[in-house]
Write a structure and sequence with these properties.
The complex is a heterodimer of chains A (530) and B (194). With 530 residues, chain A is of the alpha/beta class. Chain A contains 20 helices and 18 strands. Chain B is of the alpha/beta class. In chain B, strands 2-3-1-4-5-6 form a six-stranded mixed sheet. In chain B, helix 1 packs across helix 7, helix 4 crosses helix 8 and helix 5 crosses helix 8. The chains are: A alpha/beta (530), B alpha/beta (194). Strand 7 of chain A pairs antiparallel with strand 2 of chain B, so a sheet runs across the interface.
Chain lengths: 530, 194
C-alpha cells in the first residue's frame, strides 16, 4: 500500500481506527485536537458506530473510555498534557482497576508552551501510575505503536500512555497503514470485583499492579521501539528518547560514532541501559520535555556514572529540543549566515477583528477602569485570554481551566470589590460549573461574565458542551434568574451592556452576564458550506 | 536531492496551501517529506511558519537546522526576515512585498525593503497585483509559489499536476486560473534572476 501524508496526530487516529476501536473520548486541546477530528471525519465511524463526540472535559472522557474498556471494547482517550491533570483522578485509578478492552491514553505535551501554561512531561504520569508509556519518534512509529498498543494493553491488562510532543503531533510525513481489525465483542473480565476499588479490593489490585512491573520492564527490553545501536567510540553513550533520536541522527547523517540507545517504550529497559552504562564513560540523555530519564539514570546524589543533559546545562532546562540544541550538545554547533534584523518585531496573536470578545472587553474595560479603579478581573483559558494583551490589558490572571470563577470568589472572600471573572462557554462547562456552585452556596460577591461564542474557538471551533444550555445551567446551580443577564456584544448595544454591567457589579451577590454572539470563524465556515 | 524550505507568514494568510501543492508533487516524485506546522494559538493573527523538508533519502528531523535552509517562502516581508538565521549561505528568499500591518510597532517600510534588498539572493514581488492581473487576488499564494520554481529543484510539470489535482473539484476555470498564476510567478522570478 502507498504511503499517506499524515500528521503525527492523524497517524494515531488512523491506527486506532485500524486497530478496531469502538470509541474516542476527548476534550479539545492543542496539540491533541486533530486526533479526534480525524476520527470524526472518517467514514469508518458511521459504519462501525464509533463513539466520537467531544466530551465535557478530560475527566469525563477518561471515565467514559474506562467504561468502554469495562465492556471489553477498545477505546482511545486524547488530551493535551494539562488535561492529564484534570483526568488524573480516574487515570491513576484506572491503573489500579486495570482494563478489559485495550485502552490508550494519548497525552500530547507542549514543550516550549506554544499553546499552553506549563511544560509538564506526561512521562511522569506513567511512572506515577505505574503503567507503560510509548513515545513515538516519527509518524510511522505513532501509527505502529497505537496499532499494536491496544493488544499490548489487553495483554498486560493496563491502560498505556501514548506520549506525544507538539513537533510530532503537528508534523506530516508518509505513513503506511496496516490491515483493518474487527471491533471487540462485548465481554467482561474474569474478576467481577476488579473495578470495585473498595480499600480491601484496591489493596489487592494495587499488589497485582506492582506485580506486573517486572513484566513491563521485560516487555520494554524486548520492544522493537527500544534499540541498542553500537558505536566504536565508548567515550560517550547516548540515550535518545522519542524525537530526540531524530535530532541526533540529523546531526550524524552517516551514523553515530557513539553507542546509542533509542528509547520508545517505558518503563526503561534495564538490560540495555546497564550495557550502555557499563561500556561507556559518560552518558548523554537527549529527551524532549523535562529530564525524566536523566534523573532516573543519575539519581539524586549523582554518585554513579557521569550523566549529561538538561540538569548539568548541556541543554537548557526549559523549552523544546531542537536539532540545533542537540548539535551544540554534540559539539557541532550550527552557524548562522545571517542574523535576524533588529527591525523585525514580535507579532503576538490577537482576537479576530469582529469577534464578540472584543466588544465584551471594550465595555468591560471602559466601565471598570473609569468607574471602579479598585477592580480586578480573573481570566481563564481560551481565545479571550488574549484580552490580556493590547489594546485591552483587561485581565489579571489566567491559571487553569475554570480558575477565573473560583479565584474571583477567593479574592472576594478576601475583600476585593469588584471581583470579576471572565470565562468562555466551553471552559465554563469544562470546569467552571462546580466553582459557580461554591459561589452560590456562599452568596459570594462576584460578577461572572460567561463570554459565549457557542463553540470551543481557540482549538479551531469544536462543539461546546453547553451550547443552548448556559442560562439553564446557571439557574439550576442556583443563581438568581434576575441576575442572569444575556446581552448581544455589538457596538450598537454598548450602552445597554454598560448599564447591565454597572447594575450587576452593584448587586452584592452572584451575578452572571452572558454576552452571546457566535464565533466569527465558525460562522464564516458555516456560510462557506452553504 | 534535498530541499529544506521554511514557509512564513501571518496566521490566516494560508501558507499551508503552498506547502500542500509542493507536498503532493514531492510524494508523486517519490521523495521523502516532513512538514512541521503551527496550529493553535498563533493562528490568531500571529506569526506562523512551516518547515517543509524534501529529500530522496529518509529525513531525520521534522525541524530545519540553523543555517541550513535552502529556501524561505514568505507571504509577508517582515515575516520573511524572522527566519534569516536559518537560511544557508546560498539560500534564496522569495517573498511578497505587501506588508500585513496588525501590530502598532510595525517597522518603517522603506527600511524593511532596504534590509531585504541587501540580501544576496532574493525575489521580492507584488503577488497581490500579479494575482489581480491574472484574474483574482485569491491566487496570490500560487503566484508566490510560481516565483519559487527556479529554486525548488522540482519538475515544473509535477507542480502543475499537483495544482490540477488539488483544485479539480472546484472546476476547470479555477484550475486554469491557478496554473496561470503559477506561470506568472515563475516568469517574474526567471526575469529577475537573469
Amino acid at each position: 500500500m502507498s504511503k499517506q501524508l499524515l500528521l503525527g496526530d492523524e497517524s494515531i487516529a488512523q491506527a486506532a481506527l485500524d486497530a478496531g476501536i469502538s470509541g474516542v473520548y476527548a476534550y479539545p486541546g492543542t496539540p491533541s485536537t486533530e486526533i479526534t477530528e480525524y476520527i470524526q471525519n472518517s467514514p469508518l465511524n458511521g459504519e462501525r458506530k464509533i463513539h466520537n463526540r467531544w466530551c465535557t472535559n478530560e475527566k469525563t472522557a477518561m471515565e467514559a473510555s474506562l467504561g468502554m474498556s469495562f465492556v471489553g471494547k477498545r477505546a482511545l482517550v486524547c488530551m493535551k498534557h494539562v488535561g492529564m491533570n484534570v483526568a488524573a483522578d480516574s487515570f491513576i485509578n484506572s491503573a489500579v482497576t486495570g482494563v478489559n478492552g485495550g485502552l490508550i491514553v494519548v497525552a500530547a505535551d507542549d514543550p516550549s508552551m506554544h499553546s499552553s501554561q506549563n511544560e509538564q512531561d506526561s512521562r511522569f504520569y506513567g511512572d506515577f501510575a505505574l503503567v507503560p508509556i510509548f513515545e513515538p519518534g516519527n509518524q510511522q512509529e505513532a501509527y505502529d505503536m497505537t496499532y499494536g498498543g491496544f493488544e499490548f494493553s489487553e495483554k498486560i491488562g493496563e491502560p498505556v500512555i501514548m506520549r506525544m510532543v507538539t513537533r510530532l503531533a503537528h508534523s506530516r510525513s508518509g505513513v503506511e497503514f496496516k490491515s483493518l481489525k474487527p471491533q471487540n465483542e462485548v465481554s467482561f473480565g474474569e474478576d467481577p470485583r476488579q473495578f470495585v476499588l473498595l480499600p480491601a479490593i484496591a489493596r489487592k489490585r494495587y499488589k497485582i499492579l506492582l506485580g506486573k512491573q517486572e513484566a513491563m520492564i521485560k516487555a520494554s527490553e524486548e520492544s522493537i521501539y527500544n534499540r541498542y545501536i553500537d558505536g566504536p567510540n565508548k567515550k560517550l553513550g547516548i540515550i535518545a528518547c522519542g524525537i530526540g533520536y531524530n535530532y541526533l541522527m540529523e546531526n550524524n547523517p552517516n551514523g553515530c560514532e557513539y553507542p546509542v540507545l533509542k528509547i520508545g517504550q517505558y518503563p526503561l529497559p534495564k538490560k540495555q541501559l546497564m550495557k550502555l552504562c557499563n561500556e561507556c564513560k559518560e552518558i548523554l540523555v537527549i529527551e524532549d520535555g523535562q529530564p525524566f530519564v536523566e534523573k532516573k539514570i543519575q539519581g539524586y546524589l549523582s554518585i554513579g556514572i557521569k550523566v549529561r543533559g538538561r540538569l548539568d546545562g548541556t541543554f537548557p532546562q526549559d523549552g523544546e529540543l531542537t536539532p540545533d540544541s542537540v548539535a551544540k550538545a554534540l559539539g557541532k554547533e550550527n552557524k548562522r549566515n545571517f542574523d535576524m534584523p533588529d527591525i523585525v518585531e514580535m507579532r503576538p496573536p490577537a482576537l479576530c477583528q469582529g469577534c464578540g470578545h472584543r466588544d465584551m472587553y471594550t465595555v468591560l474595560t471602559e466601565v471598570l477602569k473609569k468607574e471602579y479603579p479598585s477592580h480586578k478581573v480573573f481570566g481563564d483559558i481560551g481565545c479571550y485570554t488574549l484580552g490580556a494583551g493590547a489594546p485591552f490589558f483587561a485581565i489579571n490572571s489566567c491559571v487553569d481551566m475554570g480558575a477565573s470563577i473560583t479565584m474571583a470568589k477567593g479574592a472576594a472572600d478576601g475583600g476585593l470589590y469588584p471581583s470579576v471573572a471572565v470565562i468562555g462557554d466551553s471552559t465554563f462547562t469544562h470546569s467552571g460549573m462546580t466553582g459557580l456552585l461554591d459561589c452560590v452556596n456562599e452568596k459570594a460577591d462576584v460578577t461572572i461574565i460567561i463570554s459565549d461564542n457557542e463553540t470551543t474557538a481557540m482549538t479551531g471551533g469544536q462543539d461546546s458542551a453547553g451550547t443552548g444550555k448556559i442560562e439553564a445551567i446557571c439557574t439550576g446551580i442556583g443563581v438568581d434568574p434576575k441576575h442572569i443577564r444575556v446581552v448581544i456584544p455589538l457596538k450598537k448595544n454598548y450602552d445597554e451592556m454598560k448599564k447591565i454591567l454597572r447594575e450587576e457589579i452593584q448587586y452584592h451577590g452572584v451575578s452572571v452576564i452572558i454576552p452571546r454572539r457566535e464565533c466569527i470563524q465558525t460562522l464564516a465556515r458555516k456560510n462557506r458550506k452553504k | 536531492m534535498k530541499k529544506d524550505i521554511i514557509l512564513s507568514g501571518v496566521g490566516g494568510q494560508g501558507i499551508l496551501s503552498i506547502a500542500t501543492v509542493i507536498g503532493k508533487a514531492a510524494l508523486k516524485e517519490g521523495l521523502y517529506l516532513k512538514q512541521a506546522e503551527v496550529h493553535g494559538m498563533s493562528q490568531r493573527g500571529g506569526d506562523v511558519q512551516s518547515n517543509l523538508r524534501l529529500s530522496d533519502k529518509p529525513i531525520a528531523s521534522d525541524l530545519i537546522s540553523i543555517g541550513k535552509c535552502d529556501l524561505i517562502i514568505s507571504l509577508e516581508p517582515m515575516e520573511a526576515l524572522r527566519y534569516l538565521p536559518y537560511l544557508s549561505k546560498d539560500g534564496w528568499l522569495v517573498t511578497s512585498e505587501t506588508p500585513l500591518i496588525n501590530i502598532p510597532n510595525y517597522p518603517d517600510q522603506t527600511k524593511l525593503m532596504d534590509t531585504i534588498d541587501k540580501l544576496p539572493h532574493k525575489i521580492v514581488l507584488d503577488v497581490d497585483n500579479v494575482a489581480k492581473e491574472v484574474g483574482s487576488t485569491r491566487v496570490a499564494n500560487i503566484v508566490l509559489l510560481g516565483a519559487t520554481i527556479p529554486f525548488l529543484g522540482m519538475n515544473y510539470q509535477l507542480i502543475q499536476e499537483s495544482i490540477k489535482n488539488i483544485f479539480q473539484r472546484k472546476g476547470d476555470a479555477i484550475v486554469e486560473l491557478n496554473l496561470k498564476a503559477l506561470a506568472a510567478g515563475k516568469g517574474i522570478a526567471e526575469k529577475l534572476i537573469q
